[in-house]
Amino acid sequence: MTPVFTSWSQAAWAALDILLVALLIYQVLVMIRGTRAAPMLAGLVVVGVTFYLARMGELTTLNWVISRMLPYVVFALIVVFQSEIRHVLADLGRRLSFLRSGEAGSDSYDDIVLAANLFSQHQTGALIVIEREIGLRTHIESGVPLDARLSYDLLATIFRPSAPLHDGAVIIQKDRIAAAACFLPLSMNPLLSTQLGTRHRAAIGITEETDAIAVVVSEETGAISLAIGGQIERDLTVDQLRERLGSELRRYMAPVTLPTPMAGNGDEPEADFDSPLQEPAPQRSPEPGPGSEPQP
């Protein structure tokens, strides 16, 4: 019975070994699909085939070159695929962290949804980055530190067109705004649409390198977009944005009542009257009437 048990045990370990290798290859292919690493991998396969033919054909000179270069191939692969390796390790760490602590807290990000709705209505460009497991300290230090409580009013004030901090990104840590006017890396993915501007490419770039979530509002069209994992979802409604944020942050986000513009009775509409994005109207001094005396 012992030889049979040993044979079955070896077969089980061999099957597990094959399964893990197949899973690893599959994850690598999924990781590089549609990225600039795909042609690099194709070139690497060509080089590997050349090395194999050189050994099979007993090409002395080429074999000598291969034997000298082989120890440095691993370092070359790390340099070439550093972005993809970093992304995979970050994704693995995020999954392990989620298994360790399933609850994400009771922080609410409804203010982001309300602010995105305001920016969309007034076609105000905005870029809001939500930090998750991977820290964004380097990017926070590139901007103006705030360390203020997350609120709709503060977001509306920061991205006001005349505000000095409206250019750049706002980075949110938990329920606090860590910094504003932050610089983010731009995505170099050649497959991105040429219609995407700097703000959208920065949102994609930060989500390619980290597990952050980026909410973007277009200045030209007012369209709301959401960038996650190097991919961008465009033309979202406010309800879709709330649902996607709740899903990604793994918390329930109760629907909130969005502010609706109210038509006034005067000649001027009141839709923009209370908007934080509007410039305050200059105060006009009352003109003296026919029977009034001039003020000293």
TrEMBL record:
SUPFAM superfamilies: YojJ-like. Coiled coil: none annotated. It catalyses: 2 ATP = 3',3'-c-di-AMP + 2 diphosphate. Residues 82-238 form the DAC domain. It is an enzyme of class 2 (transferase). PROSITE patterns: DAC. Belongs to the adenylate cyclase family. DacA/CdaA subfamily. Probably a homodimer. Catalyzes the condensation of 2 ATP molecules into cyclic di-AMP (c-di-AMP), a second messenger used to regulate differing processes in different bacteria. This is Diadenylate cyclase. It comes from Candidatus Sulfotelmatobacter kueseliae.
